[in-house]
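Annex B. Sample input.
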Amino acid sequence: MSGSGGDRDDYRTSTAIGSTGAPKGGGGGAGGGGGDDPCAIVQTAPINSPNPAAVAGLSVGDRLDVALTGTAPRHILRVQTLAGVTVGSLTHRGHLALINCIVAGNAYQAEVIQMTGGAVVVRIERV
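Annex B, continued. Sample output.
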């Protein structure tokens, strides 16, 4: 046998996340953004490190703000009640896209969609 494998016309390098043609973010099985707007994000995620006192006052259907705290490169996504009480944080698959979009000026809210004991799952979308 001889040869080096020949030309590979079908070879493509990977594209950056969020670039045209790349899958849009999604977390926890939720659909990602649509169209060409990488910040049209809809994700489902669990709240990490839930604050028991804040969780006790929540019900399915409640709306929460998604806020960015800290400074680059150590931003933290915080979920808080509309009154500003911290419920917990978000570190799900797709949270980096949310951070980038908030830094770019987008705002997001989370709706409580499931509560099991102290565990809370939210649906995140742009407002």
